[in-house]
Amino acid sequence: MKKHNFYAGPSILPEFTKQKVAEAAVDFAGTGLSVMEVSHRSKEFVAVMDEAVALVKELLNVPEGYSVLFLQGGASLEFLMAPYNLMKSKAAYLNTGSWAGKAMKEAKYFGEVVEVASSKDKNFNYIPKAFDVPADADYLHITTNNTIFGTEIKTDLDVPVQLVADMSSDIFSRPIDVAKYDMIYAGAQKNLGPSGATLVIIKDEALDKTGRTIPTMLDFQTHIKAGSMFNTPSTIAVYACLQTLVWLKEQGGVEAMEKINIEKADLLYAELDRNKLFVPTVPAAEDRSRMNVTFVMAEGYEALEKEFNDFATSKGMIGLKGHRSVGGFRASIYNAMPADSVKALIEVMKEFEASH
Ligand code: PLP
């Protein structure tokens, strides 16, 4: 039976990426060695890193004056590296969920954290709209897509300060205006590759302003100077990211991807709004994530949750169980998720509805 992968991360990757990685796991770039066995200083791997950086710049239209890095430590380490490198004394944070909260916790080690708004009052099921950002804040930190709660900021905000964004779960899902950001970061394991690589896009000019001494590995300058090779990168993870970037370019880039993502998300939300058994957890259409579609059983049908999960699993739908802080279900439909898998899920929902 065909499996449809709705896991939130690590999650579905393009067939192209998996095929290329499988080949390179045995014979990388004609070396006769695995991509896991070659030196990161070999000319073959240096070419992989260079091409991956160049493709990130091309696909996101990164302006001059920004560095692109592939680091380790996940987005979680960037919660710390962002304020360590960018926060002089005060930074603003928009609290849209657990990941934003974790980012705020780390920032508090470095100065004053102003929570400009929070959607905690409704279990983070919306994106706060009206909030003031102090003009003297060093940046506003946002989580563009809230993987757990299924909300997403789908535009580049207009605020009086530069943005720092955790784009772990929606990077490359739409075009972005990089110039509005001092820093963008993303763990690779949703829209880019396997876990083990973290993408960072950082504005060079924003660095060296804190007066702080930063330990070597946590200093962005270290990694910029060393071309992401200060320490040994995860060669297979970066190789996989490169293949996804190549695939993305072939699909028509982030503009084409956005169109497909809107179509997929619209299909699924339309079914959730129609089907009597389910309700999306995010009421406002403009706040609904195109990447993580969260839903619960409708009132009166709560007792069917386990039965639906078992039914969907029996039909090849994998990874639909929602995060424990929301409950219910979460269909993660990242870039690599074919529209056919979304349609297959909708069929399963309809079939379940018909039998109840
Ligand atoms: N930020 C967001 C939005 C996430 O979805 C995740 C992981 O799921 C993280 C941060 C943490 O990423 P990592 O596990 O790479 O540290």
TrEMBL record:
Residues in Aminotransferase class V domain copies: 5-345
GO aspect biological process, one term: pyridoxine biosynthetic process
Keywords attached to this entry: Amino-acid biosynthesis, Aminotransferase, Cytoplasm, Pyridoxal phosphate, Pyridoxine biosynthesis, Serine biosynthesis, Transferase
Catalytic activity entry: O-phospho-L-serine + 2-oxoglutarate = 3-phosphooxypyruvate + L-glutamate; 4-(phosphooxy)-L-threonine + 2-oxoglutarate = (R)-3-hydroxy-2-oxo-4-phosphooxybutanoate + L-glutamate
Pathway: Amino-acid biosynthesis; L-serine biosynthesis; L-serine from 3-phospho-D-glycerate: step 2/3; Cofactor biosynthesis; pyridoxine 5'-phosphate biosynthesis; pyridoxine 5'-phosphate from D-erythrose 4-phosphate: step 3/5
Chief location of this protein within or outside the cell: cytoplasm
First-tier enzyme category under EC: transferase
GO cellular component: cytoplasm
Residues noted as binding pyridoxal 5'-phosphate in the record, renumbered to the chain: 75-76, 99, 147, 166, 189, 231-232
Protein name in UniProt: Phosphoserine aminotransferase
Organism: Mangrovibacterium marinum
Gene: serC
